[in-house]
Amino acid sequence: MKVVICEDHPQQRKLLHTIIKNYAMMNHPSVEIALVASDAEQVLSYLENNKADCYFLDIELGDGSNGIQLADAIRKNDLLASIIFVTNYSEALKLTFKYKLAALDYIIKSSYENFSEEIIGAFESAVERYEKLGQTKTTNVFQIKMGELIKNVPYENIYYFETSEDFHKIRLYEKNGVYDFYGKLKDIEEIDSTFFRCHKSCVINLQHIIEINKKDKYVKLVNGAKCTVSFRAMRNIISKVNESLVKIE
Questions:
Q1: Domains and CATH numbers, the chain
Q2: Residues in CB range of 221: below 8 A, 6 or more apart
């Protein structure tokens, strides 16, 4: 999960960064603080080529802009990101409802005795939401956990899954690597129609098939892998692919 912080006051920016960094280091080491910014322009510049999953935004920024406008720009490009507002003035929170920004939380800076706890509580809510989103179809990503590491893999990057030599583990082959994680093929094949159980030990991504060999009972994928297809599955797989794009022998 990537986090962006935007706070114009140097001391408060450092405090916010320190609280999140130290807590994440101990409890969620896979979290990355991608940007610590002092104004909206730095965040907007970052967003030109990047995305984050959670934003801590000061509402009153000293550069003539404000966190509400920044959040509006973020929300137009990302409906799923968690936005957490940090402000000195509770009255400013009314504007977040006007702009329909669907903020995850609001933290008032004046309550310094509880400030750290509130930041950590909001951060934990963002982590929990991030993990849940990775398991839903609407995000089109498959989320795997490897120890403390959480990785989201877009469906279109996935070639296939197969049973691993390690007991109860599944091996995922995707464009950027190979990963082992605990899971069941039965659960994976039910996630999305793009995944097809071609054999008791393998689930393939139908989008990446380039060849079906009925005689030798295998499919070839764009990465060169050949996956065995059972007799029963062979009858179904041909009806699920675009025959104009797949070589069938």
A1: 2-134 (3.40.50.2300), 141-248 (2.40.50.1020)
A2: 159, 160, 204, 205, 208, 209, 210, 227
Q: How far apart are CA 35 and CA 122, in angstroms?
A: 18
The angle at the Cα of 18, spanning 15 to 21, to the nearest 5 degrees, equals 150
Which token pair is 19?
């609280």
**pLDDT digit string (tens) for 112-136?**
668 899 999 999 999 998 888 775 4
**Considering only CA atoms, which of 2, 15, 113, 117 is closest in space to residue 58?**
15
* Length of the chain (residues): 249
Rounded to two decimals, what is the model's pTM?
0.54
Give 193-222 pLDDT, tens digit per residue.
899 999 999 999 999 999 999 999 999 999
